[in-house]
Amino acid sequence: MAMADNFIPVGAPVHRRVMSRLETALAARRNVLEIIPALAYRQPIVSGEMLMRWHMLADPAGYRRVMSDNLANYPKSEIMRRMLRPAIGDSLFNADGAEWRWQRRAVTPVFTHRNVVALAPAMTATAERASARLIDAIMTGGRQAEMVGEMLTATFDVICDVALSGREHFDANAFGAAITRYFQTAGRASLLDFLGVPQWFPRPGEFLAGASVRTMHDMVANAIEARRREQPGTGAADDLLDHMLAAEDPETGHRMSADELVFNMQFFIVAGHETTALALAWALYLLANSPADQKKAHEEARTRLGSRAATAADLDAMPFITQVLEESMRLYPPVGLLARTVVAEDELCGRTVKPGDILFLPIWALHRHEMWWERPELFEPARFDPAIRRDKYQYLPFGAGPRVCVGANFAMMQAGIILSTLLARFRFTPAGPGPRPIMSMTVRPDPGVLLQVEKTE
Ligand code: HEM
Question: pLDDT tens, 122-144?
Fold first, then answer.
């Protein structure tokens, strides 16, 4: 058990007094997690006023209302949509209303369990390459590896294979560099939004992000074009791009335009690898500091896999590794905070919310809330033993309801295959000071997860 390891995973800085508008704006630019007040970890809902009234919800019944029962009343907040729009337009993640509905109907079948299982061999091959890279790291001295970088390389490898069938039309390094530039610029909450500068006033990040967004779009558009030339109208689908080219709304037969396709593929490529890599890096940080749990996970993986890399068929036979991933995403949900706008008056946890109010959904605080979790600050994978029942809206790394993450199966499969393969072969121990969680768009370990890596036999 983790408790025996006597390790308390790193948390976020919590401000106990009310911050001014400027302090909040500066905190949000530094680390979005800092805007979550101490009360949000103890109460179902916290409200306040900056320019507009805002609420922070950390109650499972409240999430059920916002994400399912009264979904139409809580569209995505314009501030968040605006941050993402240059990169992903009004594609599935960013769209609302009818524009969202038809895209969701078209894209859902792309991610059926069957389709995702068909993509698993690319994940197994990637796990093999990730382990070869770690062996190189051990051999070339140092015996240390920075696991965020390693995991980003691994999951990007998967998405290049399954989204764009390899790299012949696609320079993965140039694309990776453009993503990093984008996250460093537009990915930061804008000070101007918090200070109430009108929406038509251009934000500096948008100028800086422009060039990286254009690079990414041109590359994705070229890869799509190359695919269309290679397989004109064959309808044969064997990877994500083929499925997306064939996707249509089952009710109307509507297909995606070239731009919609680029925006959606762009989102899959960025979101599909960044979030999963962070989940993996945090899991390795936790296990490196919890030797007893790591030993248990290693034994489970070794018994099932021996010296081969994991496949889709192995995952059900390694339940503890799934629990480790789930508990890692409880403590460090890659998407730590979402925001919605209130359309019509409603009641959440006994509080009236009014049209135009901002509603924050701090998944981070929901997952560490003292009303819903025992010893919330500790790493205890056994909480996710399937025999233990809990409110399904208490644990939401992938969101919930009609807008639940469409790639959740894909993410869990890729993470399970990579993590179990590495745990079967390597032992990880901390090397250097631990990371701090910093959220801009996603919750990243800063400055990284530096570990000592040894081959296990
Ligand atoms: C560990 C990995 C991942 C995490 C933690 C994650 C998390 C989330 C969350 C929390 C949402 C809901 C957002 C909201 O309600 O505002 C979401 C939506 C979405 N995710 Fe993921 N995601 C992951 C991986 C992926 C992957 C691999 C893909 C695709 C390849 C993907 C595609 C999407 C899409 C398209 C949506 C929007 C769905 C809609 O609005 O209908 N995600 N994700």
Answer: 999 999 999 999 999 888 878 89
> According to the model, what pLDDT value does residue 188 have?
55
State the distance from the centre of ligand 1 to the C-alpha of 219, rounded, in angstroms.
Answer: 22
Mean pLDDT of the region 396-418: 97
The minimum-distance atom of ligand 1 relative to the CA of 410 is 27
Cis check for the bond before 381: say yes or no (omega within 30 of 0). no
Distances (CA, A) of 88 to 217, 257, 259, 260, 363: 9, 14, 10, 9, 23
CA-CA-CA-CA torsion for 44, 336, 217, 128, nearest 10 degrees?
-140
Spatial distance between the Cα atoms of 238 and 217, rounded to a whole number of angstroms: 23
Residue 45 CB–ligand 1 contact under 6 Å: no
The whole-angstrom separation of Cα 84 and Cα 360 is: 17
CA distances 54 to 62, 129, 206, 341, Å, are 15, 46, 25, 9
Q: Quick one: fold of 2-455? A: Cytochrome p450 (1.10.630)
Cβ(105) to ligand 1 under 6 A? no
More reliable by pLDDT, 50 or 236: 50
In this predicted structure, which of 57-66, 234-243, 395-404 has the lowest mean pLDDT?
234-243
Contact 86, 213 (CB under 8 A): yes
Instruction: Report which of 20, 22, 55 is spatially closest to residue 350, judged by C-alpha positions.
Output: 55
| d(C-alpha 75, C-alpha 64), whole Å | 14
Q: What is the mean pLDDT of residues 372-395?
A: 96
For 9-18, the pLDDT digits (tens) are 999 989 877 7
Does residue 266's CB lie within 6 angstroms of at least one atom of ligand 1?
A: no
Task: Count Cα neighbours of 208 within 13 Å in the Cβ-side half-sphere.
Answer: 15
Alpha carbons 388 and 319: distance in angstroms, whole number: 14
Shortest-distance Cα residue to atom 32 of ligand 1: 407
* Residue ranges of domains in the chain: 2-455
C-alpha 19 to ligand 1 mean position (Å) = 31
334 lines ligand 1 (CB under 6 A): yes
Mutate to test the pocket of ligand 1, among 405, 409, 412, 442 (most ligand atoms within 8 A of CB): 405
